[in-house]
Design a protein that fits this description.
43% helix, single chain
Length: 245
Amino acid sequence: MLTKREIKRLSGEYDLGQVRRLNVDSKNIHSLGAVSECKTLQSISFKDNKVDSLESLSSLTKLESIDASSNRINSIWPLQKLEYLKHLCLKDNPLPSINSMLPALKHLKALERLDFCDPHDPNYNNDDSDSEIDNKMLFAILPHLKILNGQRKEFLLMMSDDEEEEDFSRMSQSMELTFKQLGSNMPRLIEEKRQEEATTRFNKLMEEIDEMTETLQQCIVEERKPFNYNDDMSDIGEYVRFDYQ
């Protein structure tokens, strides 16, 4: 833990309230400890340590620069109230994906430089990883951000535009190929469609013929049924007269 005595010795200030800058790189510290009492602190660097929390910085609202590279930090939520923070370096820390950090980052409106990974790292912007960065979204959330992972905003946005153009080009080529394939197969597809429609019409016609045949057979059966002697006698008389004539 970083003690008051150590802070005084390293900063050269007897009063912690007067400490403006503090460098405690490579001191094998696990906690920032008494740094929370440096209320006017503007810049702190504690690279190459074993610090796992930024909680000691949460109340240091004057901070403008933090270099926390190569530590064990896994959350940046304690920094959300640092409205004057301009430079934040978090490289080589077990942080979650950039997308999951956006809710906390959006509070750092004054941020001008953000470094959380090395752009030469093979996992940087890997399409198969949830750490993929949407540069346009990040720059929209942080309007004053000028440098991201050591690369200027203009370059990154230009790269994003180029990638979008490449995506559009690939999509256009894919659509063109699809239309070509569709065009070459069109006669066959039309013929298959015609055959399908013809088969449907034929099946419907056969159903209608079956219905008509069934109806006709029913009519024939009714005309040839045996005479019923229990019918009304007047009907019999009418039947006989008609038959006689």
